[in-house]
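Deviations from the work plan: none for this task. Representative record:
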Amino acid sequence: MKLREIGEFGFIDRVSEQVKDLLLPGYLGIGDDCAVIPFTGKEDYMVTTDLLIEDIHFLKNRITPEELGYKSLAVSLSDIAAKGGTPVASFLSIGIPAETEVGYLDSFIKGYYELSRKYRVQLLGGDTTESKEYIVINVGVIGKCGKGEARLRSMAMAGDIICVTGCLGDSAAGLQVLLQNLPRTHDHLRLIRIHHMPDPHIKEGLWLAGYPEVHAMMDVSDGISSDLPHILKSSGKSAVVNLDKIPVSATLKKVAPRHGWDIDKLATSGGEDYVLLCTVSPDSFERINAGFNTAFGRDLYNIGGITPGKNRIKWLKNGKEVLHTQHGFDHFSA
Amino acid sequence: MKLREIGEFGFIDRVSEQVKDLLLPGYLGIGDDCAVIPFTGKEDYMVTTDLLIEDIHFLKNRITPEELGYKSLAVSLSDIAAKGGTPVASFLSIGIPAETEVGYLDSFIKGYYELSRKYRVQLLGGDTTESKEYIVINVGVIGKCGKGEARLRSMAMAGDIICVTGCLGDSAAGLQVLLQNLPRTHDHLRLIRIHHMPDPHIKEGLWLAGYPEVHAMMDVSDGISSDLPHILKSSGKSAVVNLDKIPVSATLKKVAPRHGWDIDKLATSGGEDYVLLCTVSPDSFERINAGFNTAFGRDLYNIGGITPGKNRIKWLKNGKEVLHTQHGFDHFSA
């Protein structure tokens, strides 16, 4: 049996099973955006790590080194944001072909530093080594939060409103612009920028974690059609999502029809949005949304609700159920 | 200018320079075996991360998956040992070609788990992704120690005795057995085993860190001729090393002459020994050595001394100075 057949999550399940007897009480291990470590002291600590490999996660001739440096850190910071944490320190391991220009690496670090400085994240260590052909990047980030205050995937409750902290689909559209080598209008460049330099929702995550009525949180890295099921599985719940309510940027609405793109598909399955997905107690939603709007100048977008049941998402469009397939959404034909 | 021209340490220096203004007081960043993070609470925390790439750090057809899993964790645990810390948790990022057999991965995790269990290190997270051709492994480990008790490379004092916690050269000899495809006698297999499954000196590091008279510590990963200079540079000191006093196993003494190997070279420049290198106050050395011998059944091997001065190692053989070159040691010919 090949890895291809069991997939990433199949492998992770096997690993979890093999090592679970070592897990100590109070520690959160494999299966959320971050691990959570209690330690002594006033805080809990979060750790996340992301591996990026050339030609798998990025194409060297399509992303500038500054953007690559920025994005390498952004994806891990987003995991800290997703638990309501403050990032403290990062660790950068990088494997580089010996023929790489030093100027390329300086630019990479410049982009990495730019985002580090924005959120005051210290680069405290890492590893540097030669690689054969491909650039390999692993970023680990440590964050912190108040004791017991990390927001986990397992905390969704039936009745909760499902929210996202920003527009979906722009990043996936930016990737399409790159892959299809489309002409670069101002709008297309904006989409590419969102794909290459996502702003991790650190401030949003911290703000939300200040409310006990905000329950489960995670970041949207694979698209909500892949990510929401993690919350549902961990919490033992189901969900209803209104495709009409998913926030989409004016840019995407304008650009998509020109290229025949399915906006619903990009917004739910495109991935790499790096906004936060959270569930909020229905009684408090209006108040929290008002506060969020004051703080961030946009809504905490209500896209659906958590329901009792197990691991099922019911997708609604114009009030009618539609079927989610690998090609997008279809009306039930049966 | 290419990376090849400035090298790993040249690159690390450039990175340190670019990010140093983000470093907060009380944090130890780039430039030691681990970062040290104060946090609140009773302890300090250590973080280390190591990147291993197929065909650079290991040959897939020369190391079993169990050994690879074991060694991937061992090299990072050794960094925690080197600061006198207790490892708490590990994070495994792995990039794997999709055609890899699941059985291979299960064996890898088995080896990783074996060492995790030995030192009670929880595997709390990581990342799994596809890679093009090569296996890529990044292991991060978090450890802890009493506040301010981490042993740094910068703590050596003039007059200190330089010690190592185990024999040197076996691992490098094991690598030679593999690379030269030598016949596998019992002795050769022992050397290969030490190369593939080094035992990180966690217990030795913890024991040594219990004595304030033990000053600088680090682990021997590149060989003492490359590693000792890090202590000298960080501490602003020089050193004298007696080649005659470097501990070498009976196996290596027996095997080396058969293959024309230079034992001094293997023991000082071979690398991957993963024993600890430390400096001890001369007044306390005898007492500490006696205690170490009782605890571990072998000496804390005295191989030389720290002297005033800057970054110079004086190598002695039979009481006479010899010159260390890339080919080994030469008598001064000038």
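Chain B has a mean pLDDT of 94.
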